[in-house]
Amino acid sequence: MRYRHIFFDLDHTLWDFETNAKDTLNDLYHHHALSKRGIEDFDGFFDRYSYHNERLWDRYTKGFIKQDELRWKRMWLTLLDYKLADEELSRNMAVQFLETLPSKKAIFPYTFEILEYLKTKGYQLHLVTNGFEKVQHNKLQSSGLHAYFNAVITSEASNSLKPHKEIFDYAFQQTGANEKESIMIGDNLDADIQGGINAGMDTVFVNHLNIAAHIQPTYTVYHLKELENIL
């Protein structure tokens, strides 16, 4: 085999963050009766949340804000769009969101099948994620994905974030892998693909959304089954 160690991203690659986050936010929307507070359209509310979440994650990965600020300000800014300046509600929703989100189980089609295929072929499977330690482990347990991975490397544990080389150095240290026998698989060009390149690894861009690539991966797939053509 050309590779021995496969490093996966989790959110948006295997675990369907968009579906699970929307389901979680819908729970909170009804729990807090936000329709009675002027937020009448849930889909619009989720779109605003997604917008702020993406912007704040970008700032978080670049080191401009801390974890806590990301967690509650994505709620705060979303509510502000509806003229609800309620910090207590924002902070409560932030906690409840992270308590509920990991219990959701939606994954992308062929996730279990491709992981089973790769394990059967003798690859060592690991995760490298910018997600929070407790949240990511709970996601893996709830979805049934935990059994497939030998190591779970989070930004919290490594004290670094993709695409920085340090998180991959930490991953190599924890797994006994090296860049020549490893490949990084993920959906995010700036974090996963650039991160893999920074670490000296080959990369696979999982292009679920069929977007134009501004960073050149080693391989591109549009469905997880296509990994069988590479590995």
Protein described:
There is one protein chain. The chain is α/β, with parallel strands linked by helices and 231 residues long. Helix content is 47%, strand content 12%. The protein has helices at 17-31, 42-61, 67-80, 87-100, 111-120, 133-143, 155-158, 165-175, 189-198; strands at residues 5-8, 124-129, 151-154, 182-186, 202-206, 219-221. A six-stranded parallel β-sheet has the order 3-2-1-4-5-6, sandwiched between helices. Helix 1 crosses helix 4 and helix 2 (42-61) packs antiparallel against helix 3 (67-80). The longest helix has 20 residues, at 42-61. It is elongated, with a radius of gyration of 18 Å. The protein starts with a strand and ends in a 10-residue tail after the last strand. The model has no long low-confidence stretch (mean pLDDT 96).
Short description:
The protein has 231 residues and is an alpha/beta fold. It has helices spanning 17-31, 42-61, 67-80, 87-100, 111-120, 133-143, 155-158, 165-175, 189-198; strands at residues 5-8, 124-129, 151-154, 182-186, 202-206, 219-221.
**Terminal Cα span:** 8 Å
Proportion of strand residues: 5-15%
Largest sheet features: 6 strands, parallel
Arithmetic mean of pLDDT: 96
Structural class, judged by helices and strands? alpha/beta
Name the helicity range: 40-55%
Rounded radius of gyration (Å): 18 Å
Number of strands: 6
- Give the overall silhouette: elongated
The run of helices and strands is: EHHHHHEHEHHEHEE
Strand line-up of the largest beta sheet: 3-2-1-4-5-6
Number of helices: 9
Ranges with pLDDT <50 over ≥5 residues? Answer: none
